[in-house]
Amino acid sequence: MKALHDPSGALARGLAAIRHQFDVPGAFPAEVLAAAELAAKRAPTAHVDRTGEDFVTLDPASSTDLDQAFRIEAAGGDLLLHYAIADVAWLVQGGDPLDVEAWKRGVTVYLPDGKAPLYPPVLSENAASLLPGGPRPAVVFTVRVDPAGMAKLDAVERALIVNRSKFAYETAQVGELPAGFAAFSARIHGAEAARGAARVDPPEQEVEAADGGGYALVFRPRSPVEDGNAALSLACNLAVASALFDHQTGLFRVMAAPDPRALGRLQHTARALKVEWPRGATLTQFEKRLDGAIPAQAAMMSAIRRAGSGASYEPYTPGVTPWHAAIAGTYVHATAPLRRLADRYVCQAALAVANSQPVPAEVAAAFAALPKVMDEADMRSNGVDRAVIDLAEAVVLTGREGEKFKAVVTDIDERGARIQLMSEAVVSRVPAHRVEPGQEVDVRLVTADTERRLLTFERLG
User: What pLDDT, in 10s, does the model give residues 23-37?
Assistant: First the structure.
């Protein structure tokens, strides 16, 4: 969610309260900043020279913490993705103040008014970032994708690369991007469909000033190039996961499918939003029909994203195949080391495995410790995201107290009825008895409290 205007200051006050409540990290300690300045000067001495190759990046226009650069080439009927990932492990030494602070933070936390980065900007937005304008150290994954979309890790090496062009989601056209980008994306998405993957990437919710005063909660649609860029990362993460699992090591991202109760809530939410769910269609079949450019369907995509039991991390365990239900496969996070602590170690393990070397002992030890650290960091980040949306919903409905709304009950529990408003992308609760999931109800907004990020409704009739 991005706050575009806040003339009354309600969002600013609410965001400050969220930072305090969730203990979002503030400025870096002096010793961490000093360590970052030294790290930024570390010369890359274990890197092959790939500066003559045409790597490019594709990110939001405003992004400066660039984790990934890429180029694609044909190899017979296969496509080769050369995926350069910021070599954070080269710059951050185990046990130094940078490393210690990163283990405290776990992830970069994003809020509408700024972010709490995992590493100081001198690294995350400069020396380690794959920005245009000079050689940068990277870990380059070479991923082979066959015509059926199966991804295999061919090689991993440290290299110096140059970003030739920084493309932006907002303006880039598929035809401007490197040859093979569209074909590569099509292969990966085709393989997803064949696996029965249920991955959903909803548009981002934003808050903007509405005509005549107040605010509106809207969605920023995803562009085709953004979906194509996600396919590059997905292919790399799947290929790395397979290689690490085959070598009986790694840290995997796992997630269970929505349970029957969550699935029922989603069906009721679809009814509330007037999004057709064909009789007999599975969740995977249904979500493939959704169009993020249509506000009601964008809200449905967000509801699906929230419906799962939550993803977590698990180290390799003999006899256990780690599984990510949304991906429908064994999966790792390796492609965002500037923003996720775990990725740094997965990259190091992949380097070792691909070059027939033992995984460093400190990396193997980290795999055992990281799940708790990353799950806690994700819990904080997800809590912040949810609180921001709650704040946005309260801000959007401020001044509409007393207004009547039609809603659909999506679930019942000890706290009452969970409802989805039919005219707004807002989920709330109402004290209600003798109602059933899927039932339409009329409600009146009683309170829109931006200080407590709370909406209260009463049932009518």
Answer: 999 999 999 999 999
In a domain? residue 406: no
Evaluate whether residue 290 is within a structural domain: no
Residue 222 lies in domain: 10-257+309-398
The predicted pLDDT at position 2 comes to 60
- Is residue 445 one of the residues assigned to a domain? no
Look at the chain and report how many structural domains it folds into.
1
Q: CA-to-CA distance for 153 and 303, rounded, in angstroms?
A: 34
Q: Residue 424: which of 381, 387, 457, 452 has the closest Cα? A: 457
Weakest mean pLDDT among 7-16, 167-176, 218-227, 448-457: 218-227
Measured CA to CA in angstroms, residue 85 lies from 39, 61, 82, 125, 313 at distances of 17, 19, 10, 14, 21
- pLDDT score at 196: 83
For 323-341, b/e burial (b = at least 16 CB within 10 A) is bbbbbbbbbbbbbbbbbbb
Structure tokens at 323: 């599984």
* Nearest to 213, CA basis, from 377, 33, 7, 4: 7
Q: How many helices (H) and strands (E) does the chain have?
A: 12, 18
Q: Is residue 211 part of a domain?
A: yes
Residue 407 pairs with which residues in a beta bridge? 421, 441
